[in-house]
Amino acid sequence: MLKLKTFATMLLSIAFYATEWGWPFAVGFVLLIFVHEMGHAVVLKHEGIPAGAPVFIPFLGAFIAMKGLPRNAYVEAKVAIGGPISGSVAAWAVLAYGLAMEQRLYVTLGHAGILLNLFNLIPVSPLDGGRIAGAFTRTFWIVGYALGLVALAATRSPILLIVLFVGLFTLWQRWRHPVPGYHDIPRAKRLMVALGYALLIVALALTLPLGMEAHPSAV
User: Fold this and answer.
1) For residues 53 and 56, what is the distance between their CA atoms, to the nearest angstrom?
2) Contact between 68 and 79 (Cβ < 8 Å)
3) Which of 16, 37, 67, 84: disulfide with 54, CB 3.0–4.6 Å?
């Protein structure tokens, strides 16, 4: 059951986003983040991993604290990709509704949701993409940091800077204190994770231009 802290932090995030983009967008955006987090929660429950309720942080998104560790990197990848899958489906549904009904607000929300999930799939820990990539090849984290640095230079985003800094610390900790057998995953499962990851990125990238003309500031 969702806890008071989830609703409280959701309301706080809505209030912060509303100062920039207005209440209608703020409510919709936080709900899209909530759907993303529920995707993680469903997989965590299925895998028998205890976890806390979602906690929202304005302009940084949200997170669910795991109270137990995944059995291996494959399970961790399944938990990680659960969020982007549910979040992407929700974003596509909102975007499709907005395009069909010619509702600019919903087109903008759908576009923002697609961007959010694409950002989360950058293969840098602690983002979902970094945890997914760890299941098929940890060396892909190097590619993630290269992409992250390019994006940082282009956007000068303080949020991305925080992600890269935290990710660098996480990466150092994982290489320094590896868990024996954690990454010993059958080749078929590695390929399945890599294929699912790639297909989701391609699908998001292909649908991203559909909402390009709408922006939060224009709502």
Assistant:
1) 10
2) no
3) 37
